[in-house]
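Lab notebook, bench 4. Continuing the backlog of folding jobs that were queued last week. Each job is logged with the same field layout so the records can be merged later without manual cleanup. Today's entry covers Olfactory receptor, a 307-residue chain. Filled in by technician R.K.

JOB TYPE: sequence-to-structure
TARGET: Olfactory receptor
LENGTH: 307
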Amino acid sequence: MEHENGTGVTEFVLLGLSQTREIQLFLFILFLVFYSIILPANILIILTIQCDPHLGFPMYFFLANLAFLDICYCSVTPPKMLADFFSHHKTISYGGCMAQLFFIHFLGGAEIFLLMGMAFDRYVAICHPLRYASIMGREICCALVGAAWAGGFTHSILQVVLIIQLPFCGPNELDNFFCDITQVIKLACTDIYVLEFFMFFNSGLVTLMCFLLLLISYGALLVRLQMGNPSKGMSKAASTCITHIIIVFIMFGPAIYIYCRPFQNFPLDKVVAVFHTVVFPLMNPMIYTLRNKEIISYLGKKCELTV
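JOB STATUS: finished
OUTPUT FIELD FOLLOWS
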């Protein structure tokens, strides 16, 4: 059955991470254990921030939203990847593939813009501490989060609308465990030079510019803190900035590798894709939490009360 855009492809074949049965079983157990531990931990972070009134600062509001975005992001590809480890014929429908494309870039784009909002929050906290509470009110924080979701949606829908108009007449094999624009558009039965350039700009250059902007802003904040009074509060602010920089590198590193180059297959593509879609997103809130004394202290008190 052909789609309205003239394509004869109704499904795509996913070659997966490995064709060896023993390796597939090992990867299934490894990812299942990781997913079963880290996913509840991220949910605990959200519940902790929501339940403790002392964690009502905008910084923790953004962290809870970051954890929620990462949980949603890691619900797009890992469940099917785990199921495909037990399937001899790994396929995904045309509609399922387009849905993966949309949600991967929707949630990923929203997270990028949320990190920009978190950087603005740190700028106000460090450069305008006396006006911080009045500037970063509940309305502004909600507006920044809403803008992040809207930005991610716009970024994603522009790509998906263009891709669904492409004709796919075969082959239909994707050398990966999920659908992404870097490989899907290569299967189109038409000239994709202009479209590839647009995708490179929309996903690659925009990601790179946001990455550089975040590094410059946090670098400037660290310099300002070094020149200021090295008090306990300033030391805490510097630690928070460093934590944000770590998350920025973890978030943007794989994305820059995947999208800031010609859309061709390279040996490390699958490894980077695993870290980009499965491992790193769930680790972002964990890294932030382990470096945050307030959240650790609250969790410790809860554990003591439970015991």
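OBSERVATION: The mean pLDDT is 85.
SIGNED: R.K.
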